[in-house]
Amino acid sequence: MSEQCEVCGFEWDTITADQVPDRLRAASDGFAEVLRGGGDSLSQRPQPDVWSAVEYGCHVRDAMFNLRDRIVVGLAEDNPTPKAMFTDLRIAAGLYAREQPQQLATEIEVAAGLLGRTVAALDASQLARPIFYGWPRATTRTLLWVAAQALHEAEHHLADVRP
């Protein structure tokens, strides 16, 4: 049985490498539309325990850069254990507090493009390389799964920010 996101229904094992670049581009275009079309409220949380559109965007941008690096590490090392992203710390430390939506939109587009090109450059044996991943449960995954996780982050959180 395929793993499925309990919230959005995303199934990691159904994703093929050739789907990743176009779907990342579509998700980044969606984020760019939200971030470039919104007003001052983009930086405000709708509820205290719900991230703002800017916080979601920063998380997606950072996740795509981080997961791209994890893919590279997975090409270089056998079953590496990457460092955590420390998402909550990034927010608590104020690292996202001054981000500008217009610039963030561009950065998300760049991150999606780089990650998409990275995935497109890999062959089947590279995509099958193992990497230890701690979420949603700690286990060894493949680099293709990591690419699918990046796609999940982008698509899932796009739904969080769309009106």
Please explain how this structure is put together.
The structure is a single chain. This protein is mainly alpha-helical and about 160 residues long. It has one domain: Four Helix Bundle (Hemerythrin (Met), subunit A), CATH 1.20.120.450. About 55% of the residues lie in helices and about 5% in strands. The protein has helices at about 20-35, 55-75, 85-90, 100-120, 125, 145-160; strands at about 130-135, 140. A two-stranded antiparallel ribbon has the order 1-2. Helix 1 (about 20-35) runs parallel beside helix 6 (about 145-160) and helix 2 (about 55-75) packs parallel to helix 4. It is globular and about 45 Å long. The relative contact order is 0.23.
The mean pLDDT is 95
Structural domains: how many:
1
Which structural class matches the secondary elements? mainly alpha
Which CATH top level class fits?
Mainly Alpha
Looking at the overall shape, the CATH architecture is: Up-down Bundle
Q: Report strand order across the widest sheet.
A: 1-2
Summarize the biggest pleated sheet. 2 strands, antiparallel
| Helical stretch tally | 6
Report the span from N to C terminus.
33 Å
